[in-house]
Amino acid sequence: MQINANPLLQEMQSLRGEIAPSVGSIRPNLTQQVNNTAGSDFGQLLSQAVGHVSGLQQTSSNLATRLDMGDTTVTLSDTVIAREKSGVAFEATVQVRNKLVEAYKEIMSMPV
């Protein structure tokens, strides 16, 4: 089974457009990191991705704190959505790390 990434990416971008822009300070911009990877340093891309995940976690924590303090501009749904986004991004990062470690071990076990 072969999966073509272009229709999948287009569908994800169309779904992104359906998300209400009134989700507070959270904007779905994960696809921005994938747009221009030609000639980019892998370490720099990985660092940006980890920084993005960290930013999502900080935003989620900030919204939860503001909700706990009684800020009326933050809704429970905004907080839950932010928490889920940060959780999904973290899980994806862990999976990428696992694949990189697995690939490294496989390369190191190859005979020279």
TrEMBL record:
Domain of life: Bacteria
Signal peptide range in chain numbering: none
GO molecular function: cytoskeletal motor activity; structural molecule activity
Example GO BP: bacterial-type flagellum-dependent cell motility
Any GO CC annotation of this UniProt entry: bacterial-type flagellum basal body
Main location: other
Localization in the cell: Bacterial flagellum basal body
Record keyword Transmembrane present: no
Keywords, ordered alphabetically: Bacterial flagellum, Cell projection, Cilium, Flagellum
Pfam families (alphabetical): FliE
Parts of the chain that traverse the membrane: none
Keyword Glycoprotein attributed: no
UniProt record similarity statement: Belongs to the FliE family.
Full protein name: Flagellar hook-basal body complex protein FliE
Higher taxonomy: Bacteria, Pseudomonadati, Pseudomonadota, Gammaproteobacteria, Alteromonadales
